[in-house]
Amino acid sequence: YSCNLGTAEDSVFLHLVRHLQENDRNIIELLNSQNNDIFLRYFKDNLKKLIITQYADKGLLQYDGLPEDYVINHIASCFVETVEWWLQNKTQESPEEITEYFLTTTRQFL
């Protein structure tokens, strides 16, 4: 996959959403379990690392005067919440659509 930001089709986030869709039954079970906080924290922490290596380290984030760690946390939080919403709505949207929703809401930073 590519980490370009132009469209959902070439986004690292689309790759993640497609992977989640392929494993959505397992992911839904994790989200509905008593340990969902642990899973979400692990998911978010690893997503932050991905954002750092694929975007921040390459100078691809827009900070607009905000601290880098705040922007990274914000993007990761938005993605986690987008995935949760998508799974709760039974993945009605395609991976491309949900990725476009996410990119639209975070475009000021990406």
- Low-pLDDT ranges: 1-6
Q: Please report which band the strand proportion falls in: under 5%, 5-15%, 15-25%, 25-35%, 35-45% or over 45%.
A: under 5%
* Shape annotation: globular
The succession of helices and strands, N to C, reads HHHHH
What is the count of helical runs?
A: 5
The major sheet is characterized as: none
**What gyration radius follows from the Cα positions, in whole Å?**
14 Å
* Average pLDDT reading: 85
Class by SSE composition = mainly alpha
Q: What is the total tally of β strands?
A: 0
> Distance N terminus to C terminus?
17 Å
Helix content: 55-70%
Q: Would you spell out the secondary-structure blueprint of this structure?
A:
Layout: H1 12-22, H2 24-32, H3 36-56, H4 68-88, H5 95-106
Helix pairs in contact: 1-5, 3-4, 4-5
Describe this structure in words.
The structure is a single chain. This protein has 110 residues and is mostly helical. Helix content is 67%, strand content 0%. It is built from 5 helices and no strands. It has helices spanning 12-22, 24-32, 36-56, 68-88, 95-106. Helix 1 (12-22) crosses helix 5 and helix 4 runs antiparallel to helix 5. The longest helix is centred in the middle third of the chain and has 21 residues, at 36-56. The chain is globular and about 40 Å long. The model is unreliable at 1-6 (pLDDT under 50).
Quick structural overview:
The protein is mainly α and 110 residues long.
